[in-house]
Design brief:
Number of strands: 0
Structural class: mainly alpha
Helix content: 55-70%
Shape: elongated
Radius of gyration: 34 Å
Distance between the termini: 89 Å
Strand content: under 5%
């Protein structure tokens, strides 16, 4: 008997859903901000413990507390890289727009309908 794989087989080239992307970005953001909080707590512990090379350790903690929020926001707002197919579709769309803006529109095809012009309206016989 075959064992079923733990992950489903991918049968489409569809990108991850927006909810999945948002969830992964939220997890990365919370993780980085947790590391920032850890740097703050570690700085407090280092000051009270009077460890050797205290200025070096405190400057590393301060650097982490300053840079991590900036990096967390950049990473949280970033989307996954586009695949080759998405890049090709974007390039084709840009080319279509460029072509539509630079080329003159095609001449319209007028449709002529045969008709008769009637001068007087006909009266109904009652």
């Amino acid at each position: 008997m075959k064992k079923h794989p733990e992950r489903p087989v991918l049968i489409t080239d569809a990108a991850r859903s927006q909810d999945d992307q948002l969830r992964s970005r939220q997890i990365r953001y919370v993780t980085m901000m947790s590391v920032r909080a850890f740097c703050l707590i570690l700085g407090g512990i280092l000051i009270s413990a009077r460890v050797p090379l205290l200025p070096l350790w405190l400057s590393l903690c301060a650097l982490g507390m300053v840079l991590l929020p900036w990096m967390a926001v950049l990473i949280a707002n970033d989307r996954p890289p586009k695949s080759k197919a998405e890049r090709a579709a974007d390039a084709a769309a840009r080319e279509d727009v460029r072509r539509a803006l630079t080329e003159p529109p095609p001449a319209p095809d007028y449709i002529t309908i045969d008709s008769e012009v009637i001068d007087e309206p006909r009266r109904r016989a009652d």
